[in-house]
Amino acid sequence: MSIEQEKFGGGVAVVTGAGAGIGMGFARRFAALGMTVIVTDVSAERAETVAGEIGAKGGKAEAMVVDVSRAEELDRLAAHVFDRHGGCRVLINNAGIETIGNTWEISAARWDATLNINIHGIVHGCRAFIPYMLKAGEEAWIGNLGSIGSFGVMPEQTAYIMSKHAVQSFTECLYLELERTGAPIHVSSILPGMLKTSIFDAADSNHEPSKSERHRTAMREMMAAYGMDLDQGVAEFVRKMAEGRFWADSQPEMTRQSLDTRIEFLQTQRPPQLAEQARHLLD
């Protein structure tokens, strides 16, 4: 028996933003291991499609519409899961959006949406679920979606990069808070490198500047050409969570390169600089 089967062979897994991309990958993986998966998404159609696909393969899944930018909806989700299913073994705070454009070109509405979904969705997911987990007193796992971008910079992706820096620091602090309580709740920072997902396929809002499409297209093509298979990357995340690791990344060499670059920047205190690959992308 693998450690993933030992730790995640039963119980309930809740995944936000599970209607596509990495969230969908998590939902499929946990279902394959034998968990009941609560597939949440802002789109009912996407959530029901993923839950239906899991069910068609013999797995157990329930679709729910949840807008993580609204704290009360995460409160509702947590209450529903514990009232109906009696517990939550795994919580994956995954929901997030990408936003492209210079800081001054992005509308206030798009800024608010990006920060509310990418940051507040994770904060309030933890805030809503942890009291129930503490009361249950059972071993549980929380995975918060950071990014390799949590340690880097990229112009025109400022909103997204900023949100992932915030998520990383939040997750580190949360780890220490739960460690001090002595509760059997494991916290992991999920760090995708470059996975083949749909995040750059199209803006899910009309609030991005029109010229952002060129940047999206370049990132989408790069991801398609060089990205890791989604299910392979998610399998890495799940294995590392099962092993109790805080750092759960998909491509360790990419993570190390990003960290080394960040460390050098902080030690030298030089002005921010674009990596050569990024300069080529933006030219």
List keywords for this structure.
54% helix, seven-stranded parallel sheet, Rossmann fold, alpha/beta
Task: Kindly describe this structure.
The protein has a single domain (3-282), classed as NAD(P)-binding Rossmann-like Domain (Rossmann fold), CATH 3.40.50.720. It starts with a helix and ends with a helix. It contains 10 helices and 7 strands. It is of the alpha/beta class and 283 residues long. A 7-stranded parallel beta sheet has the order 3-2-1-4-5-6-7, with helices on both faces. Helix content is 54%, strand content 13%.
- H/E element string? HEHEHEHEHEHEHHEHH
Beta content: 5-15%
CATH fold-level name: Rossmann fold
Overall mean pLDDT: 91
Structural class: alpha/beta
In helices, the fraction of residues equals: 40-55%
- Give the total of beta strands: 7
Radius of gyration: 18 Å
Distance between the termini: 50 Å
How are the SSEs placed, and which strands pair?
Blueprint: H1 3-8, E1 12-15, H2 21-33, E2 36-41, H3 44-56, E3 60-65, H4 71-85, E4 90-93, H5 108-136, E5 140-145, H6 158-181, E6 185-191, H7 212-226, H8 230-242, E7 247-249, H9 252-268, H10 276-282
Parallel strand pairs: 1-2, 1-4, 2-3, 4-5, 5-6, 6-7
